[in-house]
């Protein structure tokens, strides 16, 4: 069902083919010239690269507007179900190149325009773009890939989140340690957002509730907040690939509430009023940098409620504007909770429906439960959000009342089903009564959601069987899986133009929107010439990364060596230290003259540690210590190099994935919910060395076990070890290479003779070893030996690499979004048509 629109909008150069209009080099040049002059106040001869980046971005943004407004208008005129993706993080990455690609402005056209400003390559301009680091890692990046796929699939959608003034910190490495620096991503101006102050929303906090009797004699409750904030929407257009659909990412910035504290100004409490102003402005100030651990900070709950309340009010308002009755909410909106960070939406939607729209409980609950679905992203207990009850009540007293009532009704059901079973009630209750009382956000989300999904097959299974067996027994149909995916536009087409050309030639350009077509590459798996071309393409990309590594770290690496890469947040469960120990073993073998058959390697690490996570920061120091010792040793020349690339972010990721030969996915089985970097590596032709964890399991199934280096204990075996008592020290005694590595570390061999520096790490590993690093060590070495073996037969390696690309089409986020649309959202594509007059 499509809907032609005659918007009579100023589509740049709108003529015979409106969808191609304004996309030629002359038009882009003209657009840049105007923006340079009128928007930026600069003259072309003195324009800096940043000025030209801004001018080109504005010119490109102009070319999104017709599609953007037509997409909004299409929904207004013919309402369709719209996906509302609620997420505290959207790690969208650089915007310019992605918009050029999706619009269909080729690099060549952009460079024709740039040459007229004496710029030779588009890369020079892309280089100066600041990326908004509005996320920690996989969860935030997933939200961004999903927004891109939704638009590319022409599904009406809006992303709701927070416009953090400071995103994830920038990472410096000083003396081998991580140093955090504030991320001032807005400082040079960010051209991709459209502030909409007239659509601001008010949000309350604190205060008290009171009961009253309404006109009809009903007892009601109402909330009298003690503070308010205003949310100002900042909209980022999200264009789909070569379609007219251009959805909206609506990020809320918190502002002070002039109208509410105006009174304070008048009665003379000027400083009191100023304090509230400062207080409410800090709300959207900074992203919490704790990927995977819940710190339970009050300001974070405040941030969550702030963006969720604004977003729900915005959805209700849009129904109102279109004259759609509120009971229709579930037919017009499907609300997806990206983890529990937006789970307060359950209580807030109930409050808005009952207190502000005067619906009765059952109607409100029916609307809520038909609209909301919840994605779980982790089983780690330290990541499950719990809010201290007293703190929760002081910030959101009315929400707590509503949660109590939701809980009371739910527990009544539980009692009927499990009479006399107190333990089950305690476990399923939204309120944790063991120890300090707390609100369990995962229980709230699960009770209200019509679907609860995990993010990979194994994870969804563990979610059902381990984390929530009773919920799954009560509501078996509620639980489902949607395996994560990543957008091939950013992660193949933009990041790896060399590979993309090859795919265009041998598969045809349709792969970019239909990744399953890549299986056609299998026809070439025995074609020697093609395999050589495949290898040469990889080598050319590795050369570029080698240049970057040299510029950033001063280390010279050999592009023909095996690029062995682990990039992701630093966390014990991800086991960067397991990889580091493997590097030490490799080093020792070379030192001891046992390096025969070992491939020359460049081991590359990257990733940020949460600022308060001591062990993760020590792991970074450890890797840098190893790198320093190895890179300075003449015996390692031509054999082994180790680098830690600072400040891993989306932009750097785009350089790294295409240049990798080996993808390290070595988490303890059962701990990594899915992983998405693993998919980006495999699509770009890297082979994986990995455990049976998260989406690794599905990657291995698809690429074939013979094209994947598997090692390590299974989730079940890990559980058994845990229950039967695990003694890491005993393992050290049976593995001389491991013992020698640990001994050297203890002697300060990788810390300039300081034997104490890594003591906490050694004690952790030989004492408890909570993530079973030593338990998997021997098998990991065995798998690494297989990697060395495979690398010696380069034709065979290239064949395996090709099969990884050929068989990982399933991990396109287009497939994930289609799954969500069919099984959870019941949402459909709604193509947007644009017509315009011949001028
Ligand atoms: C994932 C998080 C996460 N799971 C808390 N959980 C956060 C939890 O700021 N916080 O409080 C931030 C992030 N992130 C990741 O989600 C999983 O670890 C990955 O395995 C998964 O691929 C990714 C996307 O589903």
Automatic annotation (TrEMBL):
GO biological process: glycogen catabolic process
Cofactor(s) annotated in UniProt: pyridoxal 5'-phosphate
EC numbers on record: 2.4.1.1
A GO CC annotation given for this chain: cytoplasm
InterPro entries from the UniProt entry: Glycg_phsphrylas (IPR011833), Glyco_trans_35 (IPR000811), Pyridoxal_P_attach_site (IPR035090)
Alphabetized UniProt keyword annotations: Allosteric enzyme, Carbohydrate metabolism, Cytoplasm, Glycosyltransferase, Pyridoxal phosphate, Transferase
Top class in the EC scheme: transferase
Sites bearing N6-(pyridoxal phosphate)lysine, chain numbering: 680
TM region(s), chain numbering: none
Entry similarity comment: Belongs to the glycogen phosphorylase family.
Record's protein name: Alpha-1,4 glucan phosphorylase
Species: Prochlorococcus marinus (strain MIT 9303)
